[in-house]
Design brief:
The structure is a single chain. Helix 5 runs antiparallel to helix 6. The relative contact order is 0.06. By secondary structure, this protein is mainly alpha-helical. The N and C termini lie far apart (87 Å). The radius of gyration is 29 Å and the shape is elongated. The chain has 3 domains: 80 residues, no CATH class; 79 residues, no CATH class; 63 residues, no CATH class. The chain has 10 helices and no strands.
């Protein structure tokens, strides 16, 4: 048992393949029952020492068969092969959605290198597709693919300043179209709130915003959905109305500009 497993090391995208191959290797070397927990440490001292030696070897082989980027998940589990195996399974099952989307991103980002042959390019695309398939659950259906492609398109369409939002979404155990749309809605609200001081400044300069009288803030103890202050509802919120007014003005200006640049129609 001195030869290390000859298989591709575990990364964030190949758990399904690694899991099958590593289990086969452990079985071939008489270590699988210790890793899956069916063989527990015996009380007999002679047998106990033999069992602990096998458990130590199993944990060592597991650690050596995973990429350095994955070792952080096994902190504090060395010498406990079952715990290591279960931990990796849990981590990669939770990461499947985000890992699958990262694999999609790798696929869509493939470009032909200057000195690369077309056959080599086709091979890289095929390998990227295999990684995606390996990350799919067993019950995966065509409708799920359609939804994931739509969701991926939404994430890839975002500019660089939305990168923190994308990174957060990719950490979710469940990542579907509805989750992304809800996150988009929340992000829009937060960005509008953060831009409110600029909107108010523009409204003040234009003379379109008047500060509400103090007595107007005693109508309700419930917080406004838009600004979070009490004393009024969102539809009466001066910040919300100023934001809405500014947004409408931007739309009007954009429309007028587009009309001015449009070619005249000759009959």
């Amino acid at each position: 048992m001195g030869k290390a497993p000859e298989l591709e090391k575990l990364t964030s995208t190949n758990y399904n393949d690694w899991n099958v191959e590593m289990e086969a290797w452990l079985r071939a070397h008489g270590l699988w029952t210790i890793v899956n927990g069916t063989s527990s440490c015996p009380s007999d001292e002679d047998k106990k020492e033999e069992w602990e030696t096998k458990a130590s070897k199993a944990s060592g082989w597991i650690m050596l068969s995973i990429d350095k980027s994955q070792r952080v998940h096994l902190t504090g589990t060395m010498g406990k092969p079952k715990e290591m195996w279960d931990k990796l399974k849990t981590v990669h099952q939770k990461q499947k959605a985000g890992s699958r989307f990262n694999a999609y991103d790798d696929l869509f980002s493939i470009r032909k290198a200057d000195d690369e042959s077309l056959l080599s390019l086709a091979t890289r695309v095929e390998e990227a597709m295999i990684k995606i398939k390996n990350l799919r659950p067993s019950e995966y259906k065509l409708d799920k693919l359609d939804e994931e492609l739509q969701t991926m398109a939404m994430l890839r369409s975002l500019p660089e300043d939305y990168k923190p939002l994308v990174s957060t979404l990719l950490l979710n155990e469940k990542l579907d179209k509805d989750t992304v749309i809800q996150a988009f809605h929340t992000e829009e609200i937060q960005r509008t709130k953060r831009s409110t001081p600029d909107i108010l400044e523009s409204a003040n300069k234009a003379g379109t915003y008047k500060k509400p009288a103090k007595h107007q803030h005693s109508k309700s103890s419930a917080p406004c959905f838009f600004c979070g202050l009490t004393g009024h509802f969102m539809m009466k919120c001066k910040l919300f109305l100023a934001s809405k007014q500014q947004a409408q003005a931007n739309i009007t200006n954009t429309t007028e500009s587009a009309g001015k640049t449009q070619e005249p129609h000759h009959t």
